[in-house]
Design brief:
mainly alpha; Arc Repressor Mutant, subunit A; Tetracycline Repressor, domain 2; 2 domains; about 75% helix; globular; DNA-binding transcriptional regulator, AcrR family; Homeodomain-like_sf; TetR_C_34; HTH_TetR; DNA-binding
Length: about 230
């Protein structure tokens, strides 16, 4: 990178950060997070690897910031989708089913966000400093709080269990995304054995069913019980 000039002003530094983030986002549109490496990222950004590391301490730090950005964008889009679909006068069971459908369909269109959700705990939260980890977790808490408030607005019956339900739904989202993206070897096995193909998973329908089940179970557990559980 013989023509590279170090950014001096805060504006130049912020421009370099945006370049790195936008380049990585473009790569994520073409490949999963697991396949993104610093060498290729640096080449596409037009920087030396050492210069990329001036702005982000690791590949994972870049991806965590992109996860926060993608999650915030989804949180901003979701309210209008839910407001248009959910009848506030409908029974809670119906509202829960529609919520699950909108949730799943909205994420099926956001492949990068789903991929980053699936990689969050097992990959992205590793190889980062405590400062980066804490900064991401604070941002994640803000995003979770926004989703919790939106969910409680449409499903007030969840009450104090809303945040826990939302956290469980998000974890399920990442897991289902992973399982709905089988390896080439597994796809070949499915093609050769129809019995195995029955185990394949279609992301949006599987996520919708899981979200609806989690909400139904949470609502059931939140109901007052006449008798204590246990001996």
């Amino acid at each position: 990178m013989t023509g590279f000039q170090r950014a001096r002003s805060p504006e130049q530094q912020e421009e370099r950060r945006r370049t790195i983030l936008d380049t990585t986002a473009g790569m994520l549109a073409q490949m999963p997070a697991a396949k993104i490496g610093l060498n290729e990222l640096s080449r596409q950004a037009g920087m030396a690897k050492s210069n990329v590391l001036r702005y982000f301490e690791s590949r994972e730090a870049i991806l965590l910031e992109l996860l926060d950005r993608a999650w915030s964008e989804w949180n901003s889009a979701l309210p209008a989708l839910l407001d248009a679909a959910i009848d506030p006068a409908a029974p809670v069971a119906r509202r829960a089913e529609v919520y699950a459908q909108v949730y799943a369909v909205s994420l099926a269109d956001r492949k990068v966000l789903c991929d980053l959700f699936s990689a969050q705990a097992g990959v992205l939260e590793h190889n980062v400093s405590p400062d980066v980890a804490a900064r991401y977790k604070r941002a994640a808490a803000v995003n979770l709080t926004a989703l919790t408030a939106l969910t409680r607005h449409h499903l007030p019956e969840l009450g104090d269990t809303t945040q826990q339900a939302c956290a469980q739904i998000l974890m399920a989202t990442g897991a289902i995304w992973t399982h709905s993206r089988p390896s080439p070897a597994m796809l070949e096995a499915y093609a050769k054995d129809p019995a195995l193909a029955a185990l394949s998973m279609d992301f949006a329908p599987a996520l919708q069913e899981t979200v609806a089940t989690l909400i139904a179970g949470t609502l059931s557990r939140a109901e007052p019980r006449d008798q204590p559980i246990g001996p």
